[in-house]
Amino acid sequence: NRFCAASDNRTGFLCDDRVTCVAASHVCNRIRDCRSGEDEQEKLCDDLPSSLPGYLVFHCSNPVYWIYADQRCDGMNDCGDCSDETESLAACPPCGSEWWSCTPVLYEYCTCIPKRLCRDSIQHCASWSDEYIC
């Protein structure tokens, strides 16, 4: 079993050294993150996503699309339909302390925007709460 928790408790892939934990989204990215390159092995990467272990993959609500498991609940609309941020399968916690909860006007975000976008004179929330309350 190569499951491990990478940075920020995100899903990862354990290298042969049994110490290095590579973020799921860094597997099969053509960059060897494991010393022996096992994160880029042909048998692992030849038929994405079906060649990957299931714990590295999140299937979007549209079955045509998938993302790496560490991209689920990261605040970004990686699936294109927000299923990686809002669906019950994603099981995301509420917005973290660095995020503001609202209905974004940009398709990039789903239910939260980064607080760094608050009070920047640009509307990011449908309710304008990012400019007046946040």
TrEMBL record:
<dbReference type="InterPro" id="IPR036055">
    <property type="entry name" value="LDL_receptor-like_sf"/>
</dbReference>
<keyword id="KW-1015">Disulfide bond</keyword>
<feature type="domain" description="LDLRAD1-like C-terminal">
    <location>
        <begin position="93"/>
        <end position="132"/>
    </location>
</feature>
<dbReference type="Pfam" id="PF25241">
    <property type="entry name" value="LDLRAD1_C"/>
</dbReference>
<protein>
    <submittedName>
        <fullName>LRAD1 protein</fullName>
    </submittedName>
</protein>
<dbReference type="InterPro" id="IPR023415">
    <property type="entry name" value="LDLR_class-A_CS"/>
</dbReference>
<dbReference type="InterPro" id="IPR057430">
    <property type="entry name" value="LDLRAD1_C"/>
</dbReference>
<dbReference type="Pfam" id="PF00057">
    <property type="entry name" value="Ldl_recept_a"/>
</dbReference>
<dbReference type="InterPro" id="IPR002172">
    <property type="entry name" value="LDrepeatLR_classA_rpt"/>
</dbReference>
